[in-house]
Amino acid sequence: MKALLQEERNGPLIPQSIPTPTPGPGSVVVKILANLLQHQLPGILSGTSGFTYPTPMIPGGRAVGRIAATGPDTTSLPVGQLVLLEPFVRARDDPETWIMWGSMQGTTEGSKKLFAQNWRYATFAEYVCAPLENTWALDEKRLCGELGYTIPELVWLCVDFVAYSGLKGIGLRAGERLLVTPATGPFSGAAVGIAVAMGATVLVTGRNGRALQRLVDAHPKMVSAVPRTNDIDTDRENLKKHGPVDAFLEMTPMGAEGSTHVRAAFGALKQYGRAAIMGFGGGAMKGVEVPTMELLLKSITVHGHTMYWGQDVRDVIKMVEVGALKLGKERGFDAVTEFKMEDLEDGFDWVGKNHEFGQMAVLVP
Ligand SMILES: NC(=O)c1ccc[n+]([C@@H]2O[C@H](COP(=O)([O-])OP(=O)(O)OC[C@H]3O[C@@H](n4cnc5c(N)ncnc54)[C@H](OP(=O)(O)O)[C@@H]3O)[C@@H](O)[C@H]2O)c1
Hints:
The protein contains 13 helices and 17 strands. By secondary structure, it is α/β, with parallel strands linked by helices. NADP nicotinamide-adenine-dinucleotide phosphate binds at residues 162, 182, 184-188, 206-208, 251-253, 256, 259, 261, 278-281, 283, 305-307, 355.
């Protein structure tokens, strides 16, 4: 089969012909139909993002495909079944040991072993041997037939799991007002449609007015935009004008040191408010003073959150299958742009320029 292999760190992804995998206990082989092409991937492959992994390695991990071969312990996934693959692999003997399939080996001896000896080949290939517990059946008749979604549009669900799990982590309830800050990136923007599907109204912030407008247009009765000025007092007061903020979700990338949006969000939270801290970047962690007096005087709960659990994946798939959670145009997305594996460099160029919420590209074998 054809695969995109990185032979050494910071080296190119080279198309190669390698043996098609066969499944063993705890795995299935999936024929890949579409991979999410993330704008963060070049930084991961060049080592600048801080993610580490052994080489050779095949990247990917967020994809939709069809079961091509089953293992001896596959009980519910027939050959031909449409499935979603997601990258958060937990060790079977220790759920606290985890890796990001196709991008990150983690920091413990156990996680490094799990990556290097089991899951170093992810989904940028025609076929992949996938962990059974990261392989999720999709109801093709419902999703592609009745709801009219395309296969590339379904790949987005892999992004949705993250925000859903974070919102569950702060116990978001129907009828509450959530602030998402910023809300204009792919992962952060995903939180908006999820929160609406969970019954919350949402305030969205950021500097990108076009991405904010996409979110409002997709959910005009549930979402309000509060463009960010980076003046704490102005931003806090603008947020408070909409009424009490019950909770906020923060997802800031690296390089946001000096931004005041997290502090403004704490300022806007009501008494007993909750905060989900999910960004790996500076906005929340570095260079931003956490207002501890405000935290204690308002009895605020701060919850850090990474990735998700299997139950979160099941919940999100059900939400989209019943029609509560939207994908594609109804969620604010442009049509998905597709790149063939041999046009990967064009794909990287495209996602490098087009990665606000609502823009999406997939890599197809
Ligand atoms: N915890 C987890 O499990 C998990 C999982 C996946 C991702 N993440 C985190 O989520 C982050 C966001 O991912 P993403 O894909 O949504 O976005 P992204 O593409 O990584 O970054 C773009 C977003 O960041 C905002 N931004 C850029 N520079 C900023 C600055 N100086 N100050 C404040 N905001 C700034 C942009 O807002 P404007 O341009 O509109 O201001 C836009 O919303 C990732 O970088 C990662 O740290 C966490």
